[in-house]
Amino acid sequence: MVGSATLWVWTKQRTMTQGGNGPSGESLTIEQAIANIQGSDLSLRVYAAWWLGRFRVSDPQAVDVLILALADEDDRTDAGGYPLRRNAARALGKLGDRRAVQPLMDSLQCSDFYVREAAAQSLEALGDATCAAVLIQLLKGEIPGTLPAPEQGDLAEPYDAILEALGSLGITDAIPLIKPFLTHSIERVKYAAARALYQLASSAGEAAQYGNILVKALDGDDLQLRRAALADLGAIGYLGAAGAIADTLAENSLKLIALKGVLEKQVQRSATDDDLSEGAVHVMELMDSLL
Amino acid sequence: MTNTMTNPNPSAADLIRAVEKANSAQSLVDAVRDLADARIESASSLLIEALGYNNPGAAVAAVDGLVALGDVVVPTLLEQIDGYNYGARAWAVRALASIGHPDALETLLHTLETDFSMSVRRAAARGLGMLRWQLLPETEIEPAQSKALATLLPMTDDSEWIVRYATVVGLQALAIAIPPDHPDWHRKIHDRLSQMQATDESLAVRTRVKQAQAIISQFIQEQSNQTDSSISPDWQSILDKVYRRKASERPLEEGDPRRFKSVVATMSSSTN
User: Fold this and answer.
1) Which residues of A touch B94 (CB under 8 A)?
2) What's the CATH class of domain B151-272?
3) What confidence tens digit (pLDDT) does each residue in B27-45 have?
4) Which of residues 104-143 of A touch B (CB under 8 A)?
5) What are phi and psi of B200, to 5 degrees?
6) HSE of B46 in the Cβ direction (CA atoms, 13 Å)?
7) Dist. CA B115–CA A30, nearest whole Å
8) Does B10 touch chain A (CB under 8 A)?
9) Which of B165, B202, B215, B217 to mutate against chain A (most A CBs within 10 Å)?
10) CA atoms in the 13 A half-sphere facing the CB of B226
11) Where are the domains of chain A?
12) Based on the number of CB atoms within 10 Å of its own CB, is A270 exposed (0-12), middle (13-18) or buried (19 or more)?
């Protein structure tokens, strides 16, 4: 909790200074950020890419320079990673401009694990299913030259990001490819598979079967994994999980965010605008009890 | 909230030792849970300490235990609250809010107005609406509720959705708690909720506002002996109905609906 507190204070300060300060302490404007990302100072370039996403600067010029940054060759880590490309890929997912779809699809073939992960997440956020074929290729390990996660050599691809994108984008063709990941050795990858299969299920009963895999994960011994399962259940908005979410041994803040996802899914689903569904009322009672 | 087991339990020392000796996150959760469930008053300081272990599972259990012990732990919680880190403070405020003793009023007011942590403001907003006002001397109730209302209303503009959500919960409870002869207070709550329903950017918050309006309406309906079985989420229409009915009413029978006369008048004028 201390870690998240620090992060919170830090982001709050960024917001409060109306834009935040760069690594050398100066305030950024949109024009400066766009100029910096094309400049020669690598740390300013990386920061500007992050900044444009953080403050959702959807200015077409910002999108242009971020797309250019996806092909950057200047900023390399010792291990061969591309920090600027990572930040640019993350930012583009937040700007809602579909011009980024094709360049991000190209980034799925980048050797840097984190660039591929960010690209998959951003393609999911942009909601454009044209990337389905490349995502599937990546899932099958058919793209040559990709390096595994630097700290986790046995993780060849950012499977969780790929699986989540396939689920959110409604790629039902991928179901047979996703199922084997339910028994993957990494728990988070299992959860991502369950989450995707929930979203792709053809019936409520089938969806519940996958949702319940995540519900079971709420009872696990590892706090980090319980937090991950909470986030997944909030993202899919599985009503059947509401009680278990409330009972999970984790921060109430995270449980409330997960229940918010469930509540909003209920409200969006109900056709009438008048009465709140029984499910929605139940979720709010749980949320009230966690405040 | 009742002290059903204040007698020293023979195993109290064991339970306390188990918390002190826990050597893993999970064993700490289990030990604090056992201690909390035992409701041992003398262990309250250890439960308070457990709020600061940076172990959410243990904190949840400790809050449950403190709330179960109830009013007896309020002085200690209030005394120690300033020294907590933000995580522990959130849990302590949450315990105070759930216990609902009005001695926590000033702490909750101050916390809601000034705390940088949204989880602390969230707990305070809920708690402010739910204090057991009747524990205060009668002359202090109105000033206390007035302060609570004045502090809650601006929080409907908080930058965090969860604080606004909790503020709606607090305002709902306050609308039900405040005396009916304060039509201006009811009007303020009604108008602010209507405004939120129209403009809040969060669907979850707008949904909770809708629910609050329905609950307050139902309460007013019951209080005014309205027999109409259809519950409308719209305060205004219910109060209009009460008003119309009252206009043609014979002398009042049991449960005098004049209790809400002034409220009705306010609601009618506020939206005309």
Assistant:
1) 252, 291
2) mainly alpha
3) 999 999 999 999 988 889 8
4) none
5) -65, 140
6) 22
7) 31
8) no
9) B165
10) 27
11) 20-169, 221-270+277-291
12) middle
Q: Provide DSSP, B136-159.
A: S-HHHHHHHHHHHHHHHGGGGG-S
CB contact under 8 A, B56 and A291: no
CA angle A143, A145, A148 (to 5 degrees): 95
Helix (H) and strand (E) counts in chain A: 16, 0
**Angle, helices B183-199/B138-152, rounded to nearest 10 degrees:** 20
Amino acid at residue number A282: H
**Structural tokens at position B144:** 């206390």
How many other CB atoms are there within 10 angstroms of residue B49's CB atom?
16
What is each CA distance from B82 to B48, B58, B77, B101, in whole angstroms?
13, 20, 9, 18
Domain extent listing, chain B: 151-272
Q: Which two tokens stand for residue B109?
A: 């007011």
Residue numbers in A near B120 (CB within 8 A)? none
DSSP-derived secondary structure letter, B53: S
CA–CA distance, A37 with A150 (Å, rounded to integer): 26
Asked whether the beta carbons of B136 and B177 are under 8 A apart, the reply is no
- As a residue count, chain A comes to 291
Q: Which of B210, B231, B205, B135 lies closest to B177, judged by CA?
A: B135
CA distances (Å), origin B17, targets A183, B12, B36, B212: 40, 9, 13, 45
Tell if the CB–CB gap between B207 and A1 is shorter than 8 Å: no
Q: Which CATH superfamily is domain A20-169 in?
A: Leucine-rich Repeat Variant (1.25.10.10)
Phi first, then psi: what are they for A154, rounded to 5°?
A: -85, 0
**Going residue by residue through chain A (291 aa), what tens digit of pLDDT does each one get?**
333 333 333 333 333 333 444 444 446 899 999 999 999 999 999 999 999 999 999 899 999 999 999 999 999 998 889 999 999 999 999 999 999 999 999 999 999 999 999 999 999 999 999 999 999 999 999 999 899 988 888 899 999 999 999 999 999 999 999 999 999 999 999 999 999 999 999 999 999 999 999 999 999 989 899 999 999 999 999 999 999 999 998 888 999 999 999 999 999 887 666 678 999 999 999 999 999
SS (H, E, C) B65-89: HHHHHHHHHHHHHHHHHHHCCHHHH
Which amino acid is present at B251? P
Q: Are B57 and A227 in contact (CB under 8 A)?
A: no
Residue B163 tokens, joined: 């604080």
The nearest alpha carbon in chain A to B27 belongs to: A221
Decide: helix, strand or coil at residue B37. Answer: helix
Contact B40, B5 (CB under 8 A): yes
